[in-house]
Design brief:
Layout: E1 2-6, H1 10-22, E2 26-30, H2 33-43, E3 47-51, H3 59-70, E4 77-81, H4 86-94, E5 99-102, H5 107-156, E6 167-171, E7 179-185, E8 191-198, H6 203-222, H7 226-240, E9 247-255, E10 260-266, E11 271-275, E12 279-284, E13 304-307, E14 313-317, H8 319-322, H9 333-339, H10 350-362, E15 371-377, E16 402-408, H11 410-413, H12 418-428, H13 433-455, H14 466-482, E17 488-497, E18 500-509, H15 533-540, E19 543-547, E20 552-558
Parallel strand pairs: 1-2, 1-3, 3-4, 4-5
Antiparallel strand pairs: 6-15, 7-8, 8-9, 9-10, 10-13, 11-12, 11-14, 14-15, 16-17, 17-18, 18-20, 19-20
Helix pairs in contact: 2-3, 5-6, 6-7, 12-13, 13-15
Length: 559
Amino acid sequence: MKILIADDTPAGRMVLSSMLRKESHTVLIAEDGSEAVDVFKREQPEIVIMDIMMPVMDGYEATRHIKKLSGQRFVPVIFLTAMSDEEALVTCVKYGGDDFLAKPYNPVILKAKLDALNRIRELHAVIKLQNEDLTRYRDRLDREQELAGQILTNILHAGSIYLPNLKYRLSPANIMNGDLLFVARRPTGTLHVMLGDITGHGLSSAICAMPAAEVFYDMTTTGYPIGEIAATINQKLKRVLPVTLFCAACLLEVDHTSGRLTVWNGGLPDVLVWSPREGIRHRFASQHLPLGIVNPDFFNASIAVDDLRADDRIYLYTDGLIEATNREGAMFGQDRLEHCLRPTDSPDEVFDAIQESLSKFCGSKAQEDDIGLVELPYDLNPSYPKCPSEVPPPRNLFPTKCHFDVEFTREELGRGDLLATLTPILDSLHLLPPHKEAVSVILKELLDNALDHGVLGLDSSLKNDSEGFAAYYESRQKALAELEEGWIKIRLAQGPSGVGRTLTVRVEDSGPGFDYQRHPPDVTGNIGYCGRGIPLIRSLSKDLTYSGCGNIAEAAYAW
C-alpha cells in the first residue's frame, strides 16, 4: 500500500518508515500538516498516519482537509498520540480519525491496525462500486418504467375515459399503477365502465392489466354485455397470470335509453348510487370472486340491476381509498367516505370533497396501496341521436344491393346479448360511426322487444318502480333459462334510395305478438321505466311498421 506519514519529529518518521518498508509498503513523508495535504493531493495514498501536534497546520486541521479531498473514497487516518484521556480520543474521532496508535510504537499492533483498516478500505471500495451499479440500474429502471407507463396509459385509456362528465383519480403507490380504469361505448351508445385492482402494485400489476384491457375494449365495441365480458376477462387472466396475481374488479353498464344500471362486482368495495336529495340510496355489494381466480367452468356471470334517476351519481372505488392510512396508522375508512356522500345542494363538489377529506386525513404519509376513485353522473334524458344525414358515405364503397338473413334458435336466444352476434354484419356494411350507432340502437330495441315481449311474454309495466325494475330482469333471466322453444329472424337489407341509401331492419319473432300501438309517439316527458323503446326507434327511423300479430317489425333507416 501507499502510506503517508505526517510527523514533525525526524525520529518518529524514521521509526515508522522502517516498520512500514519492512512490510513492503510505499512510504510518503510530510513534516507538517500543510505539507501532508499537498502530498495527499499529489500522490493519493491509501492510508494516512497523522501526528496531532505539528507546526503550520496541526493534525486535526490536516485530517479535515484530507477527508474532504478524498470525496467518496475511504482513506483511513491513524492518529499518532501519547494521550489516552477520553476527551482527546473523542476529539480525534470528531475530526475524522479512524484509529489511534500510541507512542512508543509497537510494530505488531501497527501491522494489525493497517491490515484491519485495509480490509475496511477494500470493502468500502466494493460497496462504492455496487452502489454505483445500483444507481445506474435504478436510473435505467425508472426510465424504462416511465416509458412503460406512457405506453400502458395509451393502451389502457384507449376508450372514453376523457368523457367530460366522468371524474376519476388513480393514484399509484409506485411509479406504475395497479388500479385500472376502462371506459368505452357499445355500438348502441351504452356506456361500459370497468374499475379494477390487481394484486399488489408496480410494473407487474400494470402489465397484467393489458390482457384485461384488450378483452374489455374488443368485446365492448363488438356489443357484448358486461357479464360475458367479465367471464372472458376471467378466462384470459386465469390462463396468463401466475396464481399470486388476480384482479378485483367491477363492471358497469349504463343504458340511457332504458335508465338501467347493470353491475358485476367481483371483490371491490360497494358500488354506491348517490342522489343529492337522499345521499346513498343503493349499494351493489361484491357477489363474486375477483377475476383470474375461478376456473371458467365455474365462473358466475350473474349481474345486479337497478333503475337510475336524472340526478343520480355512481361512485366506484378500490380498497386503497378506504384503507389509506395517516401517520398514526389509522385508516380513512368507509365512514369518512360516506360522510362526504351526505345529501347536499352542491353535487358537483362531492368528488372534490372526498379527495380533500382524504388528503387532509393522510397528510404527507406515503401510501402502500394504489388509490382508485370514480364518479359517474347520470342523465335519464340524454339527447338521442337523430338521423345524421349531413355526412355522406364514401362513393363506390357498397354493392348496389345486399341483404343478410339471420335466425336465432332457442339455444342461441338463451346465450346472451344478440346484438353482439350481429355486430360483424353491421361492420361489413361499412356504416360511418354516427350511422352505425343509430342503426345499432334501432336493432337493439327491436331485438329486445322481440325477445322480451314476443318470445318470453314479459310485461314492461312490471318496471313501475325500483323494486319492479329489478324483479323484471330476474323474471327475464328465469324465463330465458326455462325457455323450451322460440326463435327470432332478422333481415338486414341495404340498397339505393333516391340520392342516398336505405337500410331496412326486419325482426320477426315466434311469439303471439304484443300491443305496439299503446306506446306514445315520442319520449318527451316520459320519466318512467318503460315505453321508451318504440318512440326511440321512430325518432331514428324514416319509417317503422308492424305486421302479422305485432310480431313483425320493420324499420327503415335512410341517409
